[in-house]
Write a structure and sequence with these properties.
The relative contact order is 0.16. The protein is 20% helix and 32% strand. It is α+β, with helices and mostly antiparallel strands and 231 residues long. Strands 9, 10, 11, 13, 14 and 15 form a six-stranded antiparallel beta sheet that branches. The protein has a four-stranded mixed beta sheet with strand order 3-2-6-7. Strands 1-4 form a two-stranded antiparallel sheet. The protein is built from eight helices and 15 strands.
Amino acid sequence: MADEDEWSSDANEAINISFVQPGANGPTALSAFHPKYTFPIFGDEERIFGYQGLRIHLRFAAHDLQPNVEISYDKKFKAVGDTKAMDLEGTLSEYLPSSAFDKTTSFNSMVQNDTSAKDFKPPGELVRNYTSKGRNFEIWCGELTDPAVQRLIERIQVLILFFIDGGTMLALEDQEWSISRWRVFFMYISRSSFHRQLTDVDATATKNSQNRQRQPLRPTPLSAIRPRTDS
């Protein structure tokens, strides 16, 4: 019988989330942090069985939020009867788009060589921009029926589960009459650099200038979604 402590990992510690942008020698992290909650995915005990030295890197391209999952470990438990290591890719695939499981080398190349990143424009329309503490912000609003809005939500909404106790992911496959009731607000922050990146899953951004980038902060996804008040 397997020693559960020996083969059990703390899911909150094993998962490392980061937002990345091109760097001098490859993608570099703008910010990195661990999830606050993992019980919606890994159960109430927030443990992952079957690995030693487990590391799960969940990276997002900072501008368009394309995700990538990289899983590594020192040892994996050899199945004994019905006792086996958790299928991590299979488990996470329920919460992330299939593109998140492309090879990490392909993801790194995409981030590093995406010449369109500096011209990235969030979906929807700009509804406000302002400056606070020397930082420039933009707030964009889009309809949830917009495929570009849905694409960003699909990529990032796993963070709802990681940071909002009791939060649930949006059912983007709902009939159009249902999702058409909702508007999504994205907030971006602009920093001196060369392309835009998401800040909150409220979504922040600033004016598109040659030497600015939009950078992600900690996400608060549900606060970004509001029902329409018009008829």
